[in-house]
Design goal:
The chain is α/β, with parallel strands linked by helices. The chain has helices at about 40-45, 45-55, 80-90, 120-130, 145, 160-165; strands at about 5-10, 20-25, 30-35, 65-70, 105, 110, 115, 135-140, 155, 175. A 4-stranded mixed beta sheet has the order 1-2-4-3, with helices on one face. Strands 5-8-9-10 form a 4-stranded mixed beta sheet. Strand 6 (about 110) and strand 7 form a beta hairpin. The radius of gyration is 21 Å and the shape is elongated.
Length: about 200
């Protein structure tokens, strides 16, 4: 397979629109190009992704790599595109399976060693994935925020290797546990706790 399609999201305020990460490998001089209105942090992901793939014991393809972030007219900000781009390269180069891609979204920043780092604006992304009924893979460092959404299809990982092993059916990822709200205790109103406000009483 020379083409891979990975789903992710970008956080814009309280919205998190879907972004398709298309990765194509072709013959020619080795290069790595990202198109689709990428901002500075996204452009810089090329070096992070390359190092993370190599340090995760995978091969970085010596081919012409083109990454398209679609829709092209939507500004792409943040470092959360690292993980989906890396997964796309590994799928397109045939190093990992594409079986689970249709039902999964990926968001995460990669360290040079392959570790997954925390990103900002994760809650709108989780809420949007929940509305779309998609599984979402994020960094373990975002677990505390993810628990606030009470969405049980969020999975966390600490390293790129863990995500790849999950996609190849070699290991499971930790799911965010469901934590029910604290029970509400109804009781009689004690007006003596309210000072003043005689008309309201």
């Amino acid at each position: 397979m020379n083409l891979a399609l990975i789903k992710t999201r970008t956080s814009i305020g309280i919205q998190a629109p879907l972004v398709a990460v298309e990765v194509h490998l072709s013959n020619g001089l080795p290069s790595f190009t990202i198109v689709g209105l990428p901002q500075t942090a996204v452009k810089e992901s090329k070096d992070r992704v390359r190092s993370a793939i190599i340090n995760s014991q995978f091969d970085f393809p010596s081919r012409k790599i083109t990454v398209n972030l679609s829709p092209a007219d939507l500004p792409k900000t943040g470092s959360g595109f690292d993980l989906p781009i890396a997964i796309g390269i590994l799928v397109a180069s045939g190093q990992i399976s594409a079986d689970k891609l249709d039902s999964h979204e990926f968001v995460g920043e990669l360290a040079l060693c392959g570790d997954l780092n925390k990103i900002t604006g994760i809650i709108p992304i989780i809420v949007a994935a929940k509305r779309a009924n998609q599984h979402l893979i994020i960094a373990k460092a975002n677990s505390d925020e993810a628990q606030l959404t009470q969405y049980t299809k969020v999975y966390t990982a600490s390293h790129l290797r863990e995500v790849c092993a999950y996609l190849m059916h070699q290991q499971a990822l930790c799911a965010i546990p469901y934590q029910p709200d604290c029970p509400r205790i109804d009781g009689p109103i004690d007006w003596s706790d309210i000072k003043g406000q005689h008309h309201a009483k």
